[in-house]
Amino acid sequence: MDVKKLIEEQEKAGNKIGVFIHESILSCAGQVIPPDNYLKLVYEYIHEAGGFCIADEVQSGFGRVGKHFWSFQGHGVSPDIVTVGKPMGNGHPVSAVVTTKEIAKLALQKGVKYFNTFGGNPVSMAIADAVLSAIKEEKLQEKAQQLGEQLIAGLKALMDKHPCIGDVRGWGLMIGVEIVKERETRQPDKDLAFTLSQRFLSDYQIIVFPEGVHCNVLKIKPPMCLTLEDCQMFVSGLDAILTSLDH
Length: 247
Known about the structure:
This protein has helices at about 5-10, 40-50, 100-110, 120-135, 140-155, 190-205, 230-245, and strands spanning about 20, 50-55, 80-85, 95-100, 165-170, 175-180, 185-190, 210, 215-220. It is α+β, with helices and mostly antiparallel strands. The strands form 2 sheets. Strands 5, 6, 7, 8 and 9 form a 5-stranded antiparallel beta sheet that branches. A 4-stranded mixed beta sheet has the order 1-2-3-4. Strand 5 (about 165-170) and strand 6 form a beta hairpin.
């Protein structure tokens, strides 16, 4: 059921549309990239209905997708609100909500209250500022683009040898490798994906976890300090494990 139809159904029932919240790359759903113009159209429909659009950049923000600092930029949209978190503190618990002055003022006028004991404390702010500086100074966004392209190319090259790789997709260093029983039907192979996850951990000390609706997509979301040698080791490791499993 598409978004426009859902909006129409809610309006016919006398309901109003509040918000549409989304990831620009569906991370836990299997590194799924929405089709071209999908988010543009959704934003148009939501705004016409009087709602706000919220982009969740917790996993995909801060340069990880390479070409853009924020993944929503890759879809050509401008969210009303952006939520960010984990990467901003590089492990330190810090998050933020970014919005316009107009929306913030509207929230206050509506009597919305927010309280956080540690919110805005100087330690967390210093850490977040240091992380932003490191991303810029160490050119981690550019690095994510360059290494992501090479990693995706290396993984796609394995598809000729291993038919259990149904798809390789992603932006920058946010990549999914779909593991299937048969490439033509894309029948998920959850068991093989789990085995690969276990073998990567035991053989290479690399944590790769299967995600997606059928738990058959290897989620590759490495630290942005990744090196070319790390990428090559991952590709050769996947090749070696699949070969040993006769896949």
